[in-house]
Amino acid sequence: MVMSTDKLFDPLRRKEVAATAEERVRQWFISVLLNDCAVPAHLMMSEAPLQFGAKKWRADILVYDRNGKALAVVECKRPEVDIDSSVAAQAMRYNMVLNVRWLILTNGVKTLIFRRDGPAFKAFGSLPLYEQMLCQQ
User: Which domains are delineated in the chain?
Assistant: First the structure.
């Protein structure tokens, strides 16, 4: 939901935020998770703070299971940023803290979905519904 040309309303943070290129991608993907994947809004967080040792990070979007455990991490980039191994490495750093089942990387043009398969993540063909995210083991 656009509030003005330079601000967007983030429904997860419940406030206006600067409408940067990356933020536009983040807000678009939040709407995909809400509308297409049926993820309950109260089970998502944007700009979620994480800490690993002395390092502090912010995950673009976290999706939680019904028990409040992180289920998926979404890393958003500006449309002109390639979704490559450095983006995957960033999501994997977050996973060191979170131990999620799903990693999703998007720049608004290209979206890659990975599901945990044992100790590794493997490409998953399409974005799952929230119920499928919960069931896939």
Answer: 21-135 (3.90.1570.30)
